[in-house]
Amino acid sequence: MHETRSHETTSIEPGTKGETPARRPARRRRIDMRALSPFIALAVLLVLGAFTSPVFLSVENLTNVATRASFIAIIAVGATFVIAAGGLDLSVGSMAALTAGVMILAMNAVGGADVSTIAIGMAVALGVALACGLFNGLVVTFGRIEPFIVTLGGMGIYRALVVFLAAGGTITMTDWDLRETYRPIYFGDVLGVPIPVIVFLVVAAVAAVVLYKTPFGRHVVAIGSNEDVARFSGVPIRRVRTLTYVIQGLCVGIAILVYVPRLGSATPTTGLLWELQAITAVVIGGTALKGGTPFVWGTVVGALILELVANIMVLSDFVSEYLVGAVQGAIIIIAMLVQRSLQRGR
Amino acid sequence: MAPVLSARDISKSFGPVEVLGGIDLDLEPGRVHAVIGENGAGKSTLMRILSGHLPATRGRLLLDGEEVRFSDPVAAERAGIVLVHQEILLAPDLTVAQNLFLGREPRRGLFADDAAMERRAAAALAELGADIAPDAPVRRLSIAERQLAQIARALVEPYRVVILDEPTAVLTPIESEALFAAIDRLRGTGVAILYISHRLPEVKRIADTITVLRDGRHVATRPAAELEPLDMARLMVGRELSRLFPEKAFAAPDAPVLLEAERVSVPGFAEDVSFTVRAGEILGFGGLIGAGRSEVFEGVMGLRKRSGTVRIDGRPLHASGAGEALDAGLAYLSEDRKGKGLLLNQSLAANLTLAALARFTRGAFIDAQAERRALDHAFEEFDIRAGSRELLAGELSGGNQQKLLIAKMMLLEPRIVVFDEPTRGIDIGTKQQIYAFVAALAAQGKAVVVISSEMPELIGLAHRVIVMRHGRIAGEVAGARLTEQDIVTLATGVGEGAAAAA
Ligand SMILES: Nc1ncnc2c1ncn2[C@@H]1O[C@H](COP(=O)(O)OP(=O)(O)OP(=O)(O)O)[C@@H](O)[C@H]1O
Ligand SMILES: [Mg+2]
Prior knowledge:
The complex is a heterodimer.
Chain A lengths: L32 H20 L6 H26 L7 H19 L4 H28 L4 H19 L5 E2 L3 H7 L1 H4 L1 E2 L2 E2 H19 L1 H11 L1 H6 L4 H27 L1 E2 L7 H11 L11 H20 L8 H22 L1
Antiparallel strand pairs in A: 1-4, 2-3
Helix pairs in contact in A: 1-13, 2-8, 2-9, 2-11, 2-12, 2-13, 3-4, 3-5, 3-11, 4-5, 4-11, 8-9, 8-11, 9-11, 12-13, 12-14, 13-14
Chain B lengths: L4 E10 L2 E11 L4 E6 L5 H8 L7 E6 L2 E3 L4 H6 L2 E4 L11 H5 L6 E2 L2 E2 L1 H14 L15 H11 L7 E5 L7 H16 L3 E5 L3 H7 L2 E6 L2 E7 L5 H9 L19 E10 L3 E9 L3 E6 L5 H9 L5 E6 L2 E2 L5 H6 L2 E4 L3 H5 L6 H6 L7 E2 L2 E2 L1 H14 L16 H13 L5 E5 L7 H16 L3 E5 L3 H7 L2 E6 L2 E7 L5 H9 L3 H6 L1
Parallel strand pairs in B: 3-10, 3-11, 6-9, 9-10, 15-22, 15-23, 18-21, 21-22
Antiparallel strand pairs in B: 1-2, 1-4, 4-5, 7-8, 11-12, 13-14, 13-16, 16-17, 19-20, 23-24
């Protein structure tokens, strides 16, 4: 959508007042390389993958990849808000585990195997995730503590709570009929498109509209670009900033709604390192870590790239798949280098 | 005398827009060469090319007659050419001394020699008459102090060419004098100085040679002795300029008080400041740098912690943030337009509508079309000049950024407007436009406050002027006592006894 700054071509009539007559009127179409580069990287990966294995380009393989990428994609869309406003949330992985654990416990407690049980579970999950996000946001804004520290603390707290609730073991959905009812949310599809993919596309589309078309989104970008300017312009800094963390919480909650039916359980290692993957997806997507330039669709592509890399490594046998983490780590560094060089080029 | 540095046929384009075309310039040792021109004429761009910050699209640079090419500013500095930027570019968390020697720290063994740095920094600052501790972090300095520190950076090494891009824009006359003295000493030692300023009397005073640019073209190069400020202005704008200040409209003494401050204190900056502004009145605020004028108004706006009472239309205003003040009809245009005024890395339209975004919505969404119309209108009303409307705010020339900031705040249709250094870095033609605009606001019955370090501006615009010193109100002048002499006396506290006796 609005990934390039050049979405509107305003042509400037020659001789308009305010135009310096000596200069040629400029129709300036700026293709922002930063917005394009994740899409180019995606295309390159697809070509690369096609060469490594004949099954790679099969519809089945690609839908699989997209489905598996959906959790990180949804969470990373939330992270795009936080990072665009100049913040950071390291707690999303733990938050995801806690949300999944509480959701399952709630459904087990309610009992029954019909849709209403699931609806209650979903409400509880969203409630937990929103509460975690709100907590992060309020401590950052009203406590005036660095988001790095606050969410590092949150990361520890939420993780410990899961371990505690699971008593060190696993929290599982006890009712097999309920599992059957819930299953399609992860494994089902509409016209061949897996439901998790539909969910992340909808989340991204809504996020893009909120970020690019509403005053709130404009305020997020303003705060991330220069908080002082935003303050002097009357932007309600604390409210906007807190809301970015709440949105992050909401996204974690939604991701968990599609995650739980996949395995039907939560363990102390659920969501481990998701925060790193989410941040990586955001950065690969072209959003600057220092805030101010969010690219929602870039983020989604970033999440797909991470999953594609893993997929290609599994399918091919040049590199051991145990090294997936190393390659993903290398990608974030390369993405930063590319961003840096594009910035210089301007 | 043979020039140290020459530019031959220098041109520069950004995309399809040519902002400089075929410029020739010769800098001679021991001479001050001033470059003047309207906002956006291309002065800063030319300076950035001479000092290795930007590559030219076409043309050559000659150093001692030999062609040179600077890959970056460090290469130019090594060749003895240094640029003091129009914008302030210092690392806020480092100390003044560390900034002055950034990238070329004197060493003792393996370690940076902090003591030596601070000694030499102190000497350079003293030469500028600046009372700044070399070990103070830059974050704590005011804009003017930062500017002085930035200039000092060009003095700590023996450069052959020193380029000063609007060094006095943020300085008051007293600090400017100290700078001129430093420039005179540099000139005496055979340094070539390139000097940019919109203050034409100052150019007359300091320059040996003057080059005028208009719309990226060379218009004239003349000995300074041949040009009076009025001639310079004519060459810059290409037409005859009428008088600078508009007629002062009558301000009814019984008009309603729109803004009232009672014993406002801003911890660390200002104490016990009380004043009122009536509808139709222009109230000036004078004083030296560091007198606390901007801080008082940031406090009034609720952007800083403050005590005391502020009333708008008699209703108290809490110190809860700018939102409440803006809603109540009080707008403050910060002197620090890059740090507090505009989002440099965002589009012109996004900047324009940021404060008044609520007026640009249709349902829950931003009305992009309305934004674009507002931008067109702002370009017209405020005569903003840019090669394209798709630029980022940071790519506008300094003066045009100021016009954009004014346009942004005027979208709120405020009834009380506080201009903090409204014409800083603005060319003479535009100054005239801004003065006319300020006077028109007052004539429409708005209450206007102008904070300025330029005496003629205060005297030419304001009905009365409050002068601050060391965070307190030192006095108020109006009518026949509205003179430079009286303002300076109050601002410095020198000769106060005599003034009081008069
Ligand atoms: N990076 C950029 N991209 C596009 N245009 C630019 C860029 N930098 C400067 N310009 C344009 O070049 C022109 C000249 O700008 P410059 O800053 O040199 O003017 P100036 O004479 O220094 O003006 P001022 O007195 O306001 O400082 C302006 O129209 C400006 O918008
Ligand atoms: Mg300039």
